[in-house]
Write a structure and sequence with these properties.
The longest helix is centred in the C-terminal third of the chain and has 21 residues, at 331-351. The protein folds into 3 domains: 2-49 and 84-134, Malonyl-CoA decarboxylase, oligemerization domain (Butyryl-CoA Dehydrogenase, subunit A, domain 3); 138-270, Malonyl-CoA decarboxylase, catalytic domain (Aminopeptidase, 3-Layer(aba) Sandwich), CATH 3.40.630.150; 277-428, 3-Layer(aba) Sandwich (Aminopeptidase). 52% of the residues lie in helices and 11% in strands. The chain is built from 20 helices and 9 strands.
């Protein structure tokens, strides 16, 4: 492997020969099992890093350069010395027909090993730099996906959907109906592979329940009468592009396209999951430091007086209530826990932070794109996944076109979150 890598960097025989050697190296990698691929990447990371002696020599020459011409030469020499050999090698794959997809898939596997391996981490960072440059949004093409799109592309849509599972071809057909839209970004060197895609429902009013939104039995609405576009699913399709963000550009481009096609659209919003809420809530409840007020605790305890609602041996805790199967179907339970969960979820979304950014990953994504926290939705997702992740709660993030830039600057600069009075009211409510 090392010999093949060195031959790729030697550059003998011109461009055609260089591409042939890179293609052969790629075939070698693809023919390896997981252990072999890890060894391959270890050799690439360890043996084709920067040459420290060459860097030191270039730094010394830079310091000794006095006139503009020699300083310019020294700067270029230093810049070249700081580029690892592996970067030059990886760049050669850009010229191959499937080369960029090859590198995207390679980085997807590399990410698994980079967490606990400093060599792999350095190689992963180099690959991320390359891919970020190659996947600049200016190179990407926005395409609408329809039921008439190639079957191979539709199959990938089903496979890559990460938010609300597509249950089969009929479900997919409904999501591509006349009152629905699906858009994806593509790279010209990966024309058959969506990078990220968004699913949109054209409705009247702001949707509050994803099961209703995706109901296959619901009648198709005339999209020309819709006043709201609901972004209900955004899925990154390529694991190897993790950390390379173009979702914000996708939303802006889609808004432009929808506005042109449907002039009556007035509102653009999401119906989004809150994937970190239950995990955060369970952690806070385990601390036992006044997460639930005295009044709320008393009402939860009263639930245990009725053994048909919750057995007394479960312990009078909110966590025990939420762990009970079908708790959301019991009227008495819902009456008690709904205001508590709405308050705590608002607190989580507004106050739980990772540095300056919102702790919830979906919240961070939309807030950094300029959205506002608009409305919490009780039992907006009653699927097993929705109940497990967020006790069934969902949220609408609203994209108000005139405020997007200001919201983006405020959040990314100061960590300030634009929150509607409706969501704030839930946070302030106590019992």
């Amino acid at each position: 492997m090392r010999t093949q890598m060195q031959a790729c960097l030697a550059g003998r025989g011109g461009e055609v020969s260089a591409r042939a050697r890179a293609a052969e190296l790629g075939r070698t990698y693809l023919g390896l099992d997981s252990t072999g691929r890890r060894n391959f990447l270890t050799v690439l990371a360890r043996d084709f890093d920067v040459d420290r002696a060459v860097v030191d020599k270039a730094v010394d020459a830079f310091h000794r350069a006095v006139d503009p011409a020699s300083r310019g030469d020294a700067e270029r020499a230093l810049r070249a010395a700081l580029e690892p050999g592996r970067m030059r090698l990886l760049t050669q794959f850009n010229g191959l027909p499937e080369g960029i997809k090859f590198l995207v898939d390679m980085r997807a596997q590399l990410l698994e090993w980079a967490r606990d391996d400093s060599l792999m981490s350095a190689l992963e960072a180099d690959m991320k730099t390359l891919l970020r440059n190659w996947f600049d949004v200016g190179f990407l093409e926005l395409r609408r996906i329809t039921w008439d799109s190639p079957a191979s592309l539709l199959e990938k849509l089903i496979a890559y959907e990460a938010v609300h599972e597509i249950r089969g071809w009929q479900d997919l057909k409904d999501r591509l109906d006349s009152d629905r839209r699906c858009f994806a970004f593509f790279h010209p060197r990966m024309p058959d592979e969506p990078l990220i895609f968004v699913e949109v429902a054209l409705v009247t009013g702001m949707s509050d329940n994803v099961q209703t939104l995706l109901d296959e039995a619901a009648p198709v609405q005339d999209p020309q009468t819709a006043d709201t576009a609901i972004f209900y699913s955004i899925s990154n399709a390529q694991k190897g592009l993790a950390g390379i963000s173009f979702g914000n550009f996708l939303i802006k481009r889609v808004v432009d396209d929808l506005t042109a096609e449907f002039p009556k659209l007035k509102h653009f919003a999401t119906l989004s999951p809150i994937p970190g809420f239950r995990r955060w809530l369970d952690g806070e409840l385990a601390k036992g430091e006044g997460v639930v007020t005295n009044g709320e605790s008393a009402r939860i305890a009263d639930l245990f007086a009725d053994p048909d609602v919750l057995p007394p041996e479960s312990g009078a805790t909110l966590a025990a209530v939420l762990d009970r199967p079908d708790w959301q179907r019991d009227e008495a339970t819902v009456k008690v826990v709904k205001p508590i969960l709405m308050r705590l979820c608002a607190t989580y979304l507004i106050d739980a932070k990772a540095g300056k950014r919102a702790r919830d990953p979906v919240a961070h994504f939309h807030l950094s794109n300029g959205a506002r926290m608009e409305r919490l939705n009780w039992l907006g997702d009653t699927s097993d996944k929705g109940l497990r992740q967020s006790a069934g709660l969902m949220i609408n993030y609203r994209y108000k076109l005139g405020d997007i830039e200001a919201n983006h600057e405020s959040y990314t600069g100061d960590g300030k979150i634009n929150v509607s009075s409706y969501v704030k009211a839930h946070q302030k409510s106590t019992g």
